[in-house]
Amino acid sequence: MKKLMVALGLLSLAGGAFAAGKSCEELKTEIAAKLDAKGVSGYSLEVVDKGAAAEGQKVVGTCEAGTKEIVYKRG
After folding, report:
1. 27: phi then psi, degrees, rounded to nearest 5
2. What are 39-67's pLDDT values in tens digits?
3. For residue 3, pLDDT beyond 50
4. Where are the domains of the chain?
5. Cys-Cys crosslink for 24: which of 5, 17, 30, 47, Cβ 3.0 to 4.6 Å?
């Protein structure tokens, strides 16, 4: 669980710094590849409007010049 939290924290920081110019689908694919490489399973990633993350979701990246967010949800 600690590894997952560290991975999500790093993805969140990297997503904000580097993703402003990337398309949402490109960034979502990169985040999924990183999670899969770390052995994370049973999750979903979704692109939502900024600030629209629901309870139980964690923002792991931003895209489209900060107007959209990629949220992670277990299960």
Report:
1. -65, -40
2. 999 999 999 999 998 898 999 999 999 99
3. yes
4. 2-74
5. 47
Separation between Cα atoms, residue 8 and residue 5, nearest integer Å: 5
Residues 6+ apart with CB under 8 A from 13: none
DSSP annotation of 75: -
Neighbour tally for 18: CB within 10 Å = 13
Nearest-angstrom CA–CA distance, 25 and 19: 11
Give all strands of the β-sheet with 43-49 in edge-to-edge order. Answer: 43-49, 68-74, 58-63
Measured CA to CA, the distance from residue 8 to residue 2 in angstroms comes to 10
Contact 24, 61 (CB under 8 A): no
